Fold these 2 entries.
Entry 1:
Amino acid sequence: MFDRILVPTDRSDPARRALAQAADLADRYDATVTVLHVVDTRELDSDDEVDEHTETARTELVAALDDLDIDPTPEAAVRAGIPSETILDYADEVGIDLIVMGTHGRTGVRRYLLGSVTEKVVRLSDIPVLSVHPAEVDVGSIPYERILVPTDGSPGADPAVDCATDIATTYDAALHAVSVVDTGAMAGDVQIGVIIDQLREHATDAVESVADAARDAGVAETETDVLEGRPFDAIRTYVDEADIDLIVMGTHGRSGLDRYLLGSVAEKTVRTAPVPVLTVRMPASSE
């Protein structure tokens, strides 16, 4: 599933933690890892400054990677441009199939905007993006032992389910499938009881379908649950209670009344979840 992994870096703690996650995935999938540093040209006044910063960044990055206890040593790449755009362009250029990013970078003059850049990449990337939080909040472990995949049963959730199933199989991890009935979105509806019953029935079918597919794919341990409440809050609570190590979710789901899990919920989960979140974009034809 993963052959070429890209880790954008500003050499901050979240970026180093992202590299650790990427290295473990690369070992499991026999993939290559490229570490990319983007020199933010918006902070520089001339081409000479860009060239100087690029050369310095390349020298420092190569030295830093040589000092790591990672075998084989990741490839180093340095580009200049607007970080989010450059990351996506580079990923497309060299055929990357997974981007692993920290969610916070440095501050002050040396701030390369890695935090906000991650959200932009998650929103725009056509390939999966694994967002890794800083040490003070990230309680997920590698290797992954418990993987959570939220689903709303829509076709847009299928790529994330397939990805979660593959990772669970590769890591011999348990796969937890949950679906959230967003009761807050229906407050005041006179038929709320009937609607909730219908949504719970649909949610139950959705998680059981995921569990059946996972078992057919060779996942040894599966668990399912239907939750109620605000989706990202319910997901966060479940992560804590079930000691989840990794969340895998789609970036778009249904619209209108049927939209109760994916889409903006994925962005809120990336921003607030205490463990790494792997977002998988639905095919363009399904959006």
Entry 2:
Amino acid sequence: MDDALIDSFINYLRATKTKSENTIKAYAEDLLQFLEYLKQKKLSEPVLTNINHLHIRGFLAHLNEKKLSKRTVARKLSTLRSFYKYITVEGLIKQNIAKAVHAPKTSKRLPLFLYPQEIEALLSAPNNDVLGIRDRAIMELLYATGMRVGELVLLKTSDINFGANYIIVFGKGSKERVVFFGQKAAECLEEYLRKSRPYLIKNIECDSLFLNKNGTALSDRSVRRIIDKYVKIEALNCDISPHTLRHTFATHMLNNGADLKSVQELLGHSSLSTTQIYTHVTKDRLKEVYDKTFPHN
């Protein structure tokens, strides 16, 4: 019964397409972890519908004892709130018991980003062979558009509009948006399509834009390994991931005068508050503003 409840919730999320597949997988893992915790309490089945908010508090305390970060604990509570909201709407319980539990306060971390000289070094690292040309096109496109790695690996060759230098991508919750890319990214993409992709493709009917050495679509994990490879070559911060290029895109756009609303649209954020984490500015930019605007200088 408990497993069936979880499966029903996960199927609901997939059907409504309000969450990405990675988020859905995380929800499933969180709920199974919570279920295992409850089973140790020897509650009557189905345990998921025979608990109160104190059991959820106990679960969060259990996570804290395991030294999980506040951010992770807050995310797991968010999963439980969504799950209990669902089974409340389904009429299986009278009220969402998870709403009575407060999330731990988390400090907002500044997103990790690359300085212009660092991103230039990273983009220049690949060789000019078949895989190197592909890898450069991947990194150029991630940086030029600010798209998520999950969006990048779903791109088809027909999604690229070279005439106007834009791509229509489908983000979280299958939301459609337009992202743009500049001349450098366009040249790298054209070189990849001309010199690299024809050597990688095995099935002519495959329309995925970025392919692995076996001729099939790259996975997001493969893209992470590609980024890791060049980060090590350039001896950059070891915490750099594909998402760092998204952070870098947003930071550089704002540092160079883009307005917050436009960056929100380009990133595909549903809330402006999510985009506001990028309003940090670099010391170089602060110094530049100071030198230009302070009158007694």
